[in-house]
Amino acid sequence: MRALVLERQHELAIRDIDIPMKMGPGDLKIAIHTVGVCGSDVHYYTHGRIGSYVVNAPMVLGHEASGTVVEVGAGVTGFAVGDRVCMEPGVPDLSSRSSKLGQYNVDPAVTFWATPPVHGILLPHAVHPAAFTYKLPENVSFAEGAMVEPFAIGMQAASRAGITPGDVGAVIGAGPIGIMVALAALAGGCSRVYISDFSAEKLKIAAQYDGIIPVNLKAESFADVLARETGNWGADIVFEASGSAKAYDGIFKLMRPGGTLVLIGLPVDPVAFDVAGACSREVRIETVFRYANIFDRALSLIASGKVDLKPLITGVYTFEDSIKAFERAASGLPTDVKLQITMG
Ligand code: ZN
Fold it and tell me: Domain segments of the chain: what residues?
């Protein structure tokens, strides 16, 4: 079947590739409708690797997807042909200790779409376990369905933060994930969320949402703004969503004593860490890796109208033009949040 294949670093091709489509018990066959272009897909394209995950063989890209059920496997209940769905790209070993703890996202045996050597889903059909497939509510479009995966990371961050209603949130980094985190923090009870970046364009996109307050780091420091806005107290929860090592410089000055730091961005190299700054405030530190038990909640929030992700879709391409979508994503336009590809 025809797929968007990353042949090697810097080289994409739309071509036929043989992917086994064997249905097992508990599986669904899904016609892919919409796929979001993720920073990780682009990074494999531009760098050929993410950390220890290296593209050593041609790999189909894409992991943020929605589609339609075209075949229902043995033993599956609750799904029918024609159902519109979105899918979790990570499938763990359900009998593993991590899965039994509910933290299936950190199961060492998890297989995740478009993470070498596992193929992604920029192709016409995929076979996927029903247990990691979610029906789209009637008022949720395929485009929104394909936004659930990145939003789930924001939802996981808000969940790990343990937000108390009325908390003041602060997000470092106004990229796609930073904006998703801010939206999830508001939905989770934050009264307002400050978001910092060096890009005025990115901040403008974030600030179109009520409750998200932009802070341009070219003009003022995040610590100064938060101190001024909270009576020298600090944010209740700080979310690090930039992945920049520089963000850790003075990070504890952003938060109130007893506040919470949630780490989402992944710096490439180890980061120097101000242990005394954390201890002197008795900070609680939480970490986020992907998500677990989040997709149904994310869909409920989107369907309720409390979270509108549609303004974040800044470009849509056909599958035939999908290489152009990746070239545009790799060029890193500051006015882009999420590009999507429709399989047609
Ligand atoms: Zn993604």
Answer: 2-147+309-342, 152-287
Q: pLDDT tens digits, residue range 191-228?
A: 999 999 999 999 999 999 999 999 999 999 999 999 99
CA of 90 to the centre of ligand 1 (A): 11
Residue 39 Cα to ligand 1 middle (Å) = 7
Which class is domain 152-287? alpha beta
**Quick one: pLDDT at residue 268?**
85
Task: State the distance from the centre of ligand 1 to the C-alpha of 265, rounded, in angstroms.
Answer: 13
Distance of CA 62 from the midpoint of ligand 1 (Å)? 8
In the reported structure, the alpha carbon of residue 230 is separated from the centroid of ligand 1 by a whole-number distance in angstroms of 33
Distance of CA 253 to the CA centre of its chain: 27
- pLDDT confidence of residue 240: 98
Rg (CA), the chain: 20
**In whole angstroms, what is the distance from residue 343 CA to residue 2 CA?**
11
CATH architecture observed for domain 2-147+309-342: Alpha-Beta Complex (3.90)
180: CA distance to ligand 1 center in Å? 11
pTM of the model: 0.96
Cα–Cα distance, 22 to 31 (Å, whole number):
14
CB atoms within 5 A of ion ligand 1 belong to 38, 64
Tokens of 341: 């590809």
Read off the pLDDT of residues 104-135 as tens digits, 9 standing for 90 and up: 999 999 999 999 999 999 999 999 999 999 99
